[in-house]
């Protein structure tokens, strides 16, 4: 079964055509700078392809180009669109309306309108992506929506409620939603497989660490807590995002600097975290170099992120009443042996043992167990694969 996975952002449309039976990626690519000047990259599974400037006025035009690249010319991988069995769409926010992936119908799209404003930069282009698919491929090809927030909908009220007047939850649905749910779900399922257990028998902390980062507590296969909050701004320090703060820091800075809510939001989303503390870069690799050269603010930024992760591992183990495995994924989680060593240091009390040699060699997309034989808690690196998870959900729903 061939599933086309679409991830539409505000000015981009990424895609992968996946053979879901054997996980093979037949082709993938990205339409960038949609509505600006337009750039299109397309690659076949064996690494051939092209990159070119092209007019991309909107998501519809981008989608038509994707279909053209997949079906015609030197880098086509299918003979016609009839080989696409279904399309799976990544949707950033489903509010508390969407607790699972769903098959797209007119009714579902109407319901989606009710949560579209939870992610004003991401949900509207995702909807455009779906409309473009239905138009280009026809309604006979089923579309499935897979929500980044859905996995976290199993959190109990004690984990999702904020300590502000309850009426804001009732009126505006202000609560913790979390993000990266598809990644947390994928790696926690894979982790249960590696443990040789059913998901129902496991207690796992999953750390998705990239430019955006979040940590989740997954008890018996269900998310019971997660670090990101109402929006992906909450949680731990990230590349450019502040993560959690004493809320009065926000009002204090706004008053002192005379900053509007919108500008403050921008400051917290784009000028904080690694870049804000270090003044050097939002990229962990740059900070590793700077810290190695003895630049103090770079070290503070990295230490603060690692310390916050360590605290959450402890907190979530307490919340679940135990821990079977700790999982690292995402660009930093899959590659930074320094971060993993820092997080796992002095964690023997919790049952975490750590093999420094395995830690060093498990990078660049490798899966591995970093714990010592016999250790009570396993420490895994599991490269995430959100696209495959989306394809799998699509296959399940399409039948
Ligand atoms: P996104 O959240 O945008 O999907 P990624 O998951 O690709 O991001 O992660 C990007 C982060 O991963 C960057 O901070 C980058 O520096 C970091 N990263 C990638 N490779 C390494 C590495 N070898 N060592 C440390 N950090 C790395």
UniProtKB/TrEMBL annotation:
Entry EC number(s): 2.7.2.1
Cofactor: Mg(2+); Mn(2+)
Active site: 148 (proton donor/acceptor)
Location relative to the cell: Cytoplasm
GO BP annotation list: acetate metabolic process; acetyl-CoA biosynthetic process
Annotated cofactor note: Mg(2+). Can also accept Mn(2+).
Residues the record marks as site: Transition state stabilizer: 180, 241
Name of the protein in its database record: Acetate kinase
Matching PANTHER family: ACETATE KINASE, ACETATE KINASE-RELATED
Residues binding substrate, per UniProt: 90
Cellular compartments per GO CC: cytoplasm
Binding, ATP: 14, 208-212, 283-285, 331-335
Residues binding Mg(2+), per UniProt: 7, 386
Organism placement in taxonomy: Bacteria, Bacillati, Bacillota, Clostridia, Eubacteriales
Chief place where the protein resides: cytoplasm
Catalysed transformations (reactions): acetate + ATP = acetyl phosphate + ADP
């Amino acid at each position: 079964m061939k599933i086309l996975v679409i991830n539409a952002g505000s000015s981009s449309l990424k895609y992968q055509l996946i053979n879901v039976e054997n996980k093979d990626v037949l082709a993938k690519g990205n339409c960038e700078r949609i509505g600006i000047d337009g750039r299109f990259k397309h690659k076949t599974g064996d690494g051939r392809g092209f990159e070119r400037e092209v007019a991309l006025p909107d998501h519809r035009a981008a989608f038509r180009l994707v279909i053209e690249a997949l079906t015609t010319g030197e880098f086509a991988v299918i003979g016609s669109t009839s080989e696409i069995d279904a399309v799976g769409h990544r949707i950033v926010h489903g509010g508390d309306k969407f607790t699972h992936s769903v098959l797209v119908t007119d009714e579902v799209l109407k319901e989606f309108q009710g949560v579209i404003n939870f992610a004003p930069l991401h949900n509207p282009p995702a909807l455009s992506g779906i409309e473009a698919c239905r138009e280009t491929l026809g309604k006979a090809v089923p579309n499935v929506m897979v929500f980044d927030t859905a996995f976290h909908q199993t959190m109990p009220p004690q984990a999702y409620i904020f300590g502000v007047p309850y009426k804001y939850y009732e009126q505006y649905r202000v609560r913790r939603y979390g993000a990266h749910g598809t990644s947390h779900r994928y790696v926690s399922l894979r982790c249960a497989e590696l443990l040789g257990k059913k998901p129902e028998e496991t207690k796992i902390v999953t750390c998705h660490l990239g430019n955006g980062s979040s940590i989740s507590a997954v008890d018996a296969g269900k998310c019971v807590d997660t670090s990101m909050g109402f929006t992906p701004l909450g949680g731990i320090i990230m590349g450019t995002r502040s993560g959690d703060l004493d809320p009065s820091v926000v009002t204090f800075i706004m008053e002192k600097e005379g900053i509007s809510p919108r500008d403050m939001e921008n400051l917290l989303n784009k000028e904080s975290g690694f870049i804000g503390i270090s003044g050097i870069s939002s990229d962990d690799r740059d900070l590793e170099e700077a810290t190695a050269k003895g630049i103090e603010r770079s070290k503070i930024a990295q230490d603060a992120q690692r310390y916050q992760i360590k605290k959450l591992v402890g907190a979530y183990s307490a919340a679940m009443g135990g821990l079977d495995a700790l999982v690292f994924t995402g660009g930093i989680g899959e590659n930074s042996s320094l971060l993993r060593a820092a997080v796992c240091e002095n964690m023997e009390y919790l049952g975490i043992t750590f093999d420094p040699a395995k830690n060093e060699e498990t990078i660049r997309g490798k899966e591995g167990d970093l714990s010592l034989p016999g250790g009570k808690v396993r420490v895994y690196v599991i490269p995430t694969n959100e696209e495959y998870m989306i394809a799998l959900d699509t296959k399940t729903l399409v039948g």
